[in-house]
Amino acid sequence: MKVLGRHLIAELHGCPPELLVDLDLAVNILREATRISGATYLGEFHTVFEPQGGISVIVAVAESHLSIHTWPEYGYVALDIFTCGESTDPWKAYEYIVSRYRPEKVNVTEIKRGLIEVEEAVD
Question: Annotated catalytic, 87?
Answer without folding.
Answer: no
